[in-house]
Amino acid sequence: MAEEAVTTLRAELGRFGRGEEGFALLEVFLEVGRPWLGPVVLDPVGLRLPDEMTDDRALVQGLIEEIEAEPAVKGLFRSTEREYDMTDPQARWDYVRLAHCANLATVWGEGRRTTYFEVSGRVRATYWLPESLKVAFFDAIQAKGWAVPADWLTAVGKQPKPWWKRGS
């Protein structure tokens, strides 16, 4: 059976009229995508507020300060990755805002075999969506009264490379 076409959608905060629009779209994605999602994680080292964040700056800065104040474990190898529970509305809110403050934040599929969303270097943000998830996402965006970005509507999905050709 052939894999579903995957569409790449650019989602940097700077491409939206307000950063909060990007946050709202990510919140919708996390709600709609829940059946497809595996771990939702970010690297909390070096969190910084993005310039595009206009609302909630003080709240998000408070979250960053709480994370930075956590005691470090000395002498043990510890992953800095932090996972968020998407069934908890507060965890979802925290993740959406902190993802865009992080050097790396990822929304994985089951078993970490698929990446659906990633922020890297605080500036690049991308969705990779199979057609069925993209349709559900766009429908939910519109149902909540948001506009789907025009270039997302015209983005064309591509067939993934066969597993034996990936990485080359």
Can you walk through the features of this model?
The chain has a 6-stranded antiparallel β-sheet with strand order 1-6-5-4-2-3. It has helices spanning 19-32, 57-69, 89-99, 131-143, 150-154; strands at residues 6-10, 37-42, 82-83, 104-109, 115-120, 124-130. A hairpin with a 3-residue loop joins strand 5 (115-120) and strand 6 (124-130). The chain is α+β, with helices and mostly antiparallel strands. The chain is globular. The chain starts with 5 loop residues before the first strand and ends in a 14-residue tail after the last helix. 23% of the residues are buried.
Instruction: Write the H/E string, N to C.
Output: EHEHEHEEEHH
How large is the radius of gyration? Answer: 16 Å
Shape: globular
In percent, how helical is the residue content? 25-40%
β-strand number = 6
* Unreliable stretches: none
| Number of continuous helical runs | 5
Counting helices, strands and paired strands, the structural category is: alpha+beta
Residue share in β-strands = 15-25%
Largest sheet: 6 strands, antiparallel
Nearest-integer average pLDDT: 87
| Euclidean distance between termini CA atoms | 22 Å
Spatial order of the strands forming the largest sheet: 1-6-5-4-2-3
Assembly type = single chain
